[in-house]
Amino acid sequence: MEIVIRCVAEEDGDDVSSELFDWLVDDNNARKHAAPELLADTPGPNQLGTVAIIQLVLSGAFSATSLGVVIAQWREQRRVAAAPKITVTVEKDGKQFAVTGSDTGEIQRKLDELDAA
User: Fold this and answer.
1) Residue 3: exposed, middle, or buried by beta-carbon count in 10 A (0-12, 13-18, 19+)?
2) How would you class 4 by CB atoms within 10 Å of its CB: exposed for 0-12, middle for 13-18, buried for 19 or more?
3) How many angstroms separate the Cα of 21 from the Cα of each of 45, 79, 113, 117?
């Protein structure tokens, strides 16, 4: 299953996808079974400069649920560090959802729905 993720800070619209990418690369399971890649993307209407997306190809050993856990850990680390809230947008097979704020349960539910689709 291929998933594309974009992460944008709420306050200033900064692209923070590279921060999540670094977190995924540091996670042994994600690095081994999800094969994260950081790719250039076209900036959105409120963004300037370089924008990145994370492309993941999930294997059976790393499901959307596993991805949800890693994203939740990353978001919690950002919250503790008093970093601005972010919007995480996940896309699979043309279906897309966005979660803004720090509700890790919501992103897990959405990922589970994508995994079941």
Assistant:
1) buried
2) middle
3) 23, 17, 22, 24
Instruction: Look up residue 52 and give its two tokens.
Output: 């990145």
Which residues partner with 94 through β-bridges? none
Question: Would you say 117 and 3 are in contact if contact means Cβ atoms under 8 Å apart?
Answer: no
| Residue 34 DSSP one-character state | T
Q: Which of 75, 73, 82, 80 is nearest to 102 (CA)?
A: 75
pLDDT band at 25 (very low <50, low <70, confident <90, very high): very high
Judge if pTM exceeds 0.85.
Answer: no
Three-state DSSP class for 61?
coil
Q: Give me the torsion for CA of 56, 31, 61, 106, rounded to 10°.
A: -60
User: pLDDT tens, 28-83?
Assistant: 888 888 889 999 877 666 655 567 889 988 877 777 778 888 888 888 787 766 66
Nearest-angstrom CA–CA distance, 26 and 69: 14
